[in-house]
Specification:
The complex is a heterodimer of chains A (331) and B (354). Chain A is built from 13 helices and eleven strands. Classes of the chains: A alpha/beta (331), B mainly alpha (354).
Chain lengths: 331, 354
């Protein structure tokens, strides 16, 4: 019986595999038929707004897809807060017609229609109804989400998450190409680079590297979550003349209070301040009073959005970190 | 037990009484399909919907009809089909499992389909697949195969000689399920970026849009559900207990195995694309049993249709409750399903229905 079932199971796997590609051609008429419905109405509205001189552009996105736009996008739906911030920072804000639920910066973005996004659930209907000529997806979006929008005949660009500031600048340039704001982006990048250099110069003579514990969630104060290698927070703490808790391996590890007490951080930054965590609450947690940062009153609330969204505000985050870690240099 | 056998005897249900419940549930399903097509996070005025129908969704449609056509054909129709099929699979499998295990707490996930599928999906998610057809298919395929493999493991663990005692099956299923769930949680804690994706899948809800998932699961549902629909008589006999059923001429072990495989096949296929949607497979058979009696020859088709209708209604709620946000389907089925079930339970005049 067991062997028979194994054979059946193997056969099933093959038929699922066998039927699946056959499903693609059958499903193909839907996506091809839909743009045909769209085209007559889309062309007259899109053609006048797009600059007539611009040639079609093709860019490879973060999923390795080749995305082609006939002209820079004029109606963009942003699927991630970082994308919204990038779009507005390169002066493409007026071209944004929709945003995800969490896009709250800059303030103008909040007045745009939301297309959902909490728990990874977006309303494809709302996105389709906004008739965007570009959907700018981000690292928080799933490939399935990209595929679903692509199947609706929409142009989707997946902006992969950067892991360095240089990659973040490259992302700004990419979005600038997609929206026709290359010169705005290069001005922005120059000023961002200048600000990063100013921080580097300021900290050039610093030799002390205080240990920083960056808290993102301490629902269980004995096992708070922090950020480790592979995150911008880790990168920017080092750039701001500090050092992250030693021995971390995962990007978002949960560490034990024991480990924190042993590392004895000089500074505790509360990335969870937005959820109501206060320095006083930290001082009152059992066992935390022995930590140097608590003893020396160096537990500080920190705006997590500056360092958790891979956009131009990372530089604001770097400056804020530098001021928090080396206040003596900013007197 | 004897009272139920009398209930199930065909003499008490002349033809029209046997077809009436079917007509009721089919009407309900029809209404649910209409709702699912008409309602979504984007409001389509009924007048425009009518004009679209009149135009047959084709030709050069003026705005905003073209956008509405895109939303209905590209989003709502395939989603309605997938949700209805998923609900049908869960409803019918739930009824079959409850009959097979003679346990009112049985649902399609009892012997590990959900936990196995979850583990398979999370393992597949921990790998960076290229953006291609097969990359996108990797997760549903892993979920489907892991679900079937789990049932296979549980079945062989529970086997004693040639027999498969029901209690062993339940215990092996629950134990293996806990193991798989723990492993899934461990993998989710270890991974960083994919937790969101895994959570969305585990809470249920059609993540992949379009017709591909519908066509992908259809063969398994057709096979699994056809077998289940033909198993009504065997399930009726099994209600007397294995020994009695055997004396009544039923090849007990073979019948149980066939029903188990058919129900698991349908559930695994449903779970592969729609994620884990709880509660439907548990309550729909009970509601049908309370309303229309416990004869499995009728209960199975009624649970199939009722499951499809109930899940469609839940999906409509998921789309509109927090529009434009969409809630995971698994939250709605429990949140709206549990009070409804309790209401039916309280009102049920047939107190000792099980």
């Amino acid at each position: 019986m067991f062997r028979k079932l194994i054979i059946i199971l193997a056969a099933l796997a093959f038929t699922l595999a066998g039927c699946a590609p056959a499903a693609t051609p059958t499903s193909a008429p839907v996506p091809t038929a839909l743009p045909a419905v769209e085209v007559p109405t889309e062309v007259p509205t899109a053609a006048p707004t797009a600059s007539p001189t611009s040639a079609p552009l093709t860019i490879t996105d973060g999923l390795g897809r080749k995305v082609t736009l006939p002209a820079p996008a004029q109606k963009v739906v942003s699927m991630a807060p970082s994308n919204t911030e990038i779009l507005f920072a390169i002066s493409a804000g007026p071209q944004v017609v929709g945003r995800d639920e969490f896009s709250d910066y800059p303030a103008q973005a909040k007045s745009l229609p939301s297309v959902g996004g909490s728990m990874g659930q977006y309303s494809n209907e709302q996105i389709a109804a906004l008739k965007p000529d570009l959907v700018l997806a981000g690292g928080i979006n799933t490939p399935e989400q990209v595929k679903a929008l692509e199947d609706l005949g929409l142009t989707v660009f997946y902006l992969g998450n950067p892991s360095t500031l240089e990659e973040m600048y490259a992302n700004l340039e990419t979005v600038a190409k997609l929206t026709g704001h290359e010169s705005d982006a290069s001005t922005l990048i120059d000023s961002l680079k200048a600000r990063v250099k100013a921080v580097d110069d300021k900290l050039a003579g610093v030799t002390a590297k205080p240990i920083v514990f960056y808290e993102i969630d301490a629902s269980d104060p004995n096992k708070p979550y922090t950020t480790g290698p592979g995150t911008f927070i880790d990168l920017l703490i080092a750039r701001a003349g500090g050092q992250n808790l030693p021995g971390l391996k995962d990007p978002y590890p949960q560490v034990s209070l024991e480990q924190i007490v042993v590392a004895n951080p000089d500074i505790i930054l509360l990335g969870d301040a937005q959820y109501g965590t206060t320095p006083e609450a930290v001082a009152g947690r059992p066992g935390w009073a022995t930590i140097a940062a608590v003893k020396n009153n160096r537990v500080l609330p920190f705006d997590d959005n500056l360092v958790s969204r891979p956009g131009p505000r990372l530089v604001d985050g770097l400056e804020a970190l530098a001021k928090a870690i080396h206040p003596e240099m900013y007197k | 037990m004897i009272a139920r056998a009398r209930d199930a005897s065909p003499r008490r249900f002349p033809m029209r009484h046997r077809l009436l419940p079917l007509a009721w549930t089919l009407t309900f399903l029809g209404l649910a399909i209409l709702l699912s097509i008409a309602i979504g996070s984007v409001f389509i005025p009924p007048a425009d919907l009518w004009r679209l129908l009149a135009a047959g969704f084709s030709g050069a449609l003026p705005e905003p009809l073209a956008t509405y056509a895109l939303i209905i054909i590209g989003i709502r129709l395939p989603r309605t089909a997938l949700v209805a099929l998923t609900g049908a699979a869960l409803g019918a499998s739930g009824a079959a499992y409850q009959g097979l295990f003679r346990n009112p707490l049985a649902d399609p996930y009892l012997i590990g389909v959900a936990s196995g599928a979850g583990l398979g999906a999370v393992i597949a998610m921990s790998i960076q697949w290229p953006y291609s057809f097969w990359g996108l298919m990797a997760i549903p395929m892993a979920a489907f195969l892991a679900a079937l493999l789990t049932v296979l493991i549980v079945y062989s663990l529970a086997r004693v000689g040639r027999a498969v005692p029901t209690t062993n099956l339940i215990l092996a299923g629950v134990a293996f399920g806990s193991f798989a769930t723990a492993l899934t949680s461990f993998l989710m804690l270890r991974s960083s970026g994919e937790v969101r994706r895994a959570l969305g899948w585990l809470l249920g809800g059609a993540s992949q849009a379009g017709w591909m998932p519908v066509l992908g699961i259809l063969p398994y549902l057709v096979i699994g559900l056809s077998i289940l629909l033909l198993s009504g008589h065997a399930l009726n006999l099994l209600q007397f207990g294995d020994e009695q059923a055997h004396q009544l001429g039923l090849p007990v072990t073979r019948a149980k195995t066939i029903i188990l495989v058919a129900a698991s096949l349908a559930t695994a296929a449903a779970v592969a694309f729609a994620g884990i949607i709880g509660f439907v497979g548990l309550i729909v058979p009970h509601v049908m049993r309370m309303w229309f009696g416990g004869d499995y020859r009728r209960l199975l088709p009624l649970s199939l249709i009722g499951g499809a209708a109930a899940l469609l209604v839940a999906d409509v709620l998921a789309r509109v409750v927090l529009a434009p946000q969409e809630l995971p389907l698994g939250i709605i089925t429990a949140l709206a399903g549990a009070p409804f079930f309790l209401w039916v339970l309280r009102r049920s005049k047939n107190q000792g229905y099980w």
